[in-house]
Design goal:
Blueprint: E1 3-6, H1 13-21, H2 28-45, E2 46-53, E3 56-67, E4 70-78, H3 87-99, E5 105-111, H4 115-124, E6 127-134, E7 139-147, H5 154-165, E8 170-174
Parallel strand pairs: 4-5
Antiparallel strand pairs: 1-2, 2-3, 3-4, 5-7, 6-7, 6-8
Helix pairs in contact: 1-2, 3-4
The structure holds coenzyme A.
């Protein structure tokens, strides 16, 4: 199977998000937040990529560029009819190795009860580094980090996470997320 990324022109991005909205039922609140963010500042630091499987649109990946070496993978969504074929696993692996050649640190998070997403992050090689409590939504997310230059350390990743995730509306609890 072939997987590749395609970055749609800026003026098509909002259409892409709206198309997805009806399918994204699990984390609807967060999705709506993404929609709003996409509308206001996609141009600046967020980039949306279509995931193509054998040249068919099969999902999207939203990336938040923090700086030259660090990004947040904000959302990978594979459309329902393309799931369970290994597409997300391959796409995530490609995203952390080939998509942005200068970047070495990748952060991502998923709901602490979303077994499917948690398994995906771990299969790709992400490390659990903490738990992010979203205070407004009363929801817990597991925070993951990955370094593609073989320079992963829990200490460095946690220091970076403290810088990246300190916000009044969320609380970062360092640990593997199992005992918070
Ligand atoms: C989570 C999500 C991205 C996974 O996408 P996916 O393409 O189905 O993921 P994969 O196919 O790589 O892996 C899913 C399962 O299929 C299995 N699988 C992998 N390759 C396979 C293959 N060739 N044939 C059959 N099954 C396969 C995997 O082992 C995995 O099994 P598991 O769930 O029991 O661990 C998708 O369900 C989704 O879009 N969910 C909604 C959004 C979301 O939660 N995003 C992630 C957090 S931001």
């Amino acid at each position: 199977m072939s997987i590749r990324f395609f970055e749609p022109p800026q003026d098509k991005i909002i259409d892409r998000f709206q198309q997805l909205e009806s399918e994204f039922t699990q984390n609807r609140l967060i999705f709506n937040e993404w929609l709003q963010k996409a509308a206001v500042d996609l141009g600046a630091s967020r980039r949306l990529f279509d995931v193509l499987h054998n040249d068919e649109n099969s999902g999207v990946l939203l990336i938040h560029i923090i700086d030259n070496s660090t990004v947040k993978l904000n959302a990978l969504i594979i459309y329902p009819q393309f799931r369970n074929k290994g597409i997300a696993t391959r796409a995530m692996k490609m995203a952390v190795t080939d998509l942005l050649p200068d970047v070495s640190w990748y952060f991502t998070q998923c709901r602490s009860n979303d077994i499917r997403a948690l398994r995906l992050e771990e299969r790709v090689g992400f490390h659990r580094i903490g738990l992010l409590r979203h205070l407004r939504e009363s929801a817990d997310n597991i925070l993951f980090a990955y370094n593609n230059k073989n320079e992963f350390s829990l200490e460095t990743s946690r220091k970076l996470a403290i810088k990246l995730y300190s916000r009044p509306d969320q609380q970062l609890l360092i640990g593997d997320g199992t005992n918070a």
